[in-house]
Each structure stands twice: as C-alpha cells, then as structure tokens.
Amino acid sequence: MLWELAFERIPYENYTIEEIHNHVAVERKREVIYENIDDEKQEKKLYFETIISAWRDDFTLRPSLQNIFLKLNEAYLLVKQEKLEFKHKNCDHKSIVDSKSLLNINELKIGYLMPIQIDEGIIAHKKKNYKLAFDCFEYHANLGSPLAMYWKAYYLYDGRTGVKNIELARKLFKKVADLDDADAQLRYAFSLLDEQRKLPQQYEQEFAKYIRLSAYNDNVTAQYNLGDMYIKGMYIEQNKKLGAKFINIAAIRNHPKAVDYFKN
Q1: What is the three-class DSSP state of 6?
Q2: What is the CATH number of domain 118-263?
Q3: Which pTM does this prediction carry?
Q4: Sign of the alpha-carbon dihedral angle for 200, 203, 205, 211
Q5: pLDDT tens digits, 183-199
C-alpha cells in the first residue's frame, strides 16, 4: 500500500494471481522503487526504507504495523511544511525488481529497522536468541509496555546478554508490580536480596508486602514462600495455621517445595 500511495500505481497491474505468487513467493521479486533511496531528503529515505523493510523474506525482521506508523509519523514531521513529491519515471510496468539481487532486501542494513513484537520476543527468548529478545523488550519498554518492562528487568537482573543492572531491574520490576502484576511483584521482592541471597533488614517489610501481594494475586511460588514465612515467623508475624493453608494451596498446584513439605 505504501508503494501504491507513493507512485500512484496499481501494484502488479495486468498480472494474474498465479503470476504475482510466482514473482513474490517463488522468485522473491517485488515492485520497482522508482527513486534513489539514498536521496538527500531524510523523509524520502525513511519512507522508502520502510517499504523495503516490510518486504524482507524473514517475517521476524519486518516492522510491525505500529512501528510503520511511528516511522511514517517521523517522516511527516520532517515534511509538514514542505510537500513531499515523488518523481515518476516512464518505464515498463512489467519490469519487477529482484529483491535479492538489485535491492538485496534481506541483507540491507536499515539503521532504524524496528524490533519484533513482544510475543515474538518471548518466542526468541525461548529459543535462546537472547540478543534479539532483549532488543525487542528494551524497545517496547521505552514505549511504555508493562510486559516489555518486566522482561527487560528480567534480562538486566541476571545479565543474560552481558549487561547487568540490578538497580534498574529493581525499579522496572516495582513499576510493573505496582500495576498489580503477580509475577512482577514476586520478582521485585526477590530483587531486594543481596548478592549472598540474604535480605537486608531495611527491606524486610517491603519484601513481605510484595510476597503477600503476589500470593494473593495467585502466584504459586509466592504462595509457597508466604506460607513458609508465616510458619517460621520470618519478616511477618508468625501464624502457623495460615502458613499451612498457603503451603497446602501451593502443593495442590504442584509446587515442588510445597509438595515436599507435606511429604516430610
């Protein structure tokens, strides 16, 4: 659609569905960009490179619709006082660019290419593609996504990509925790532990508060820990009956330590 708007032409005009499929899916060809993408006008470069980035064969490298909107808005701001005109050149419309040879789309380095969406970032994490995942989470966290903030904090806390920042991770976990996210509440509580996995005295009330919040928000690990705290009277007023209740709930949900607690 962006190509069509730029050149005011119908893409693949006079082609049959079979011919379009062959050119795009089989031969990896695309429409011709009738412009120099290295044009000195930054707004034109942004616009055409956005088109090219959306043509990448690997869908995980394509910008999302949201990111395309952001780039179009950036281009608009550059030209809001100057009408952007696209030069049309006379050429045979049957001439279609080979995306691998002429534009070399899959190897083209576009500095502003946006990261993948968060759910795809989580998939990358599960596949242990940590660099791709972290770049995704960091970008979306900067846009204000609580889920991305949680994952960015997760990466910063354990230094999975070589960048470790426990203080920032703690702040991000707390920010998401205060949005009533059970997992973030648990992570924030445990981020208060020191390097020896001990809890400094000044954090005891804070730790107990967020473990309790997470437990009541149905996090099974928090439920076990809260039960253990109640039974031992650790960081919280002792209540063995209530502690056993929480550990029992965690055991029913197959939390390993809770199950072992009742076995022993």
Answers
A1: helix
A2: 1.25.40.10
A3: 0.59
A4: negative
A5: 999 999 999 998 888 99
